[in-house]
Amino acid sequence: SSSSSSSPAAPPPPPAPAFPHNVPTPALVAAGALALALGAKAILDKPSRAYVQGPGGDSIGTVGEEYDAWTEEGILEHYWGEHIHLGYYTDEDMAKGAGTLLGCRVKDFVEAKFDFVDKMLEWSGCPPNPAMVLDVGCGIGGTSRHLAKALGPKSKVQGITLSPNQVQRATELAATQGVDNASFRVMNALEMEFPDDTFDLVWACESGEHMPDKKKYVEEMIRVLKPGGTIVIATWCQRETPPAFTDEEKANLKFLYEEWAHPYFVSIEEYVRLMEGTGSMATVGSANWVKETIRSWRHSIWVGVWDPWPVVFAGPRIWYKTIREIVTLERMHRAFDCDLMTYGMMKGTKAAAAPAAAAAAKE
């Protein structure tokens, strides 16, 4: 028989990579999760809402826009209630686990804010029944209305904020609650339109953080305070220096400045120096309320765990924003916990006008 010639056989294909068969599936999942986590961390570690001065060098631009957006979304009001500030926690509250998953069912998150207002008023030493009260940075008016109710109808409470949306919402809530002795205006706290010596009590709760000129902020509040009147300030502060901030502390502060539109923080001691530096104060006092307020940060996260649906149904933009808020809340907790941040409470009484000055003013 005849044989036919044939071409040489093709070389066998290279073996398939062994990687998928040799690496366990859980390890692949873990590696993917780690990569996603690192990517997310890189995004979340980069602050997204830096403070930008308004055209007049004030804080109207960024801060007013942020609070307008928060008010319009309604998410902040749903979880934080009418008060956009930290709450007050006693030793008994802490023993019950306030600020933990189960503890947030023991201490009501919103009620803690009312407690804070009551404790702040008590601590201020303000004489009873101040006729004219100014709430600097009033938000949607929760504190203004609470003070108006607590002090009685003879006390007139004026709230000011940079956010038109907040003024609208505050006015709506006052009408709904039948609070006739509280009113609200859009006004820059650094350039207040009130005459000198107008208010018996000037109240500022967590508004100083947004002020680009702390000296002017303090001076304006004391300017509109009547002689013999009381000023009380609650605000987030950074620790006093020296010792100088480490590089890690500087990085942490930079994030806290630039994520929630803060120009900068100052120390409790600096606020005291600013108040005394006006030359108008008869007395000035201060305290650090970190112990009383720090539980608020994690408590605010847990209330969202118990009631996630407003965020779930709000859509991807709010999901992303909420994740950023959770990260920032935790970073705030850690900054206060390690003494990088302090919770400043400052109070004082304005000196009575000298007889000659009082007579000249009447003329």
TrEMBL record:
What keywords would UniProt list here? Answer: Alkaloid metabolism, Methyltransferase, S-adenosyl-L-methionine, Transferase
The UniProt entry, under Pfam families, shows: Methyltransf_31
Domain of life, per lineage: Eukaryota
**Region: SAM motif I, residue numbers:** 133-142
- Region of interest called SAM motif II, as start-end residue ranges on this chain: 197-205
Query: Gene3D superfamilies under this entry?
Result: Vaccinia Virus protein VP39
Oxidoreductase keyword on record:
no
Under InterPro entries, the record lists: Erg6_SMT_methyltransf, Methyltranfer_dom, PiNMT-like, SAM-dependent_MTases_sf
Which stretches make up the Methyltransferase domain? 133-253
The UniProt annotation puts the region (SAM motif III) at: 224-233
Q: In which pathway does it act?
A: Alkaloid biosynthesis
What is an example of a GO molecular function annotated in this UniProt entry? methyltransferase activity
Membrane spanning stretches: none
Q: Which GO terms describe its biological process?
A: alkaloid metabolic process; methylation
Q: Report the family membership.
A: Belongs to the class I-like SAM-binding methyltransferase superfamily. gTMT family.
Protein name as it appears in the record: Methyltransferase domain-containing protein
Question: What is the organism field in this record?
Answer: Micromonas pusilla (Picoplanktonic green alga)
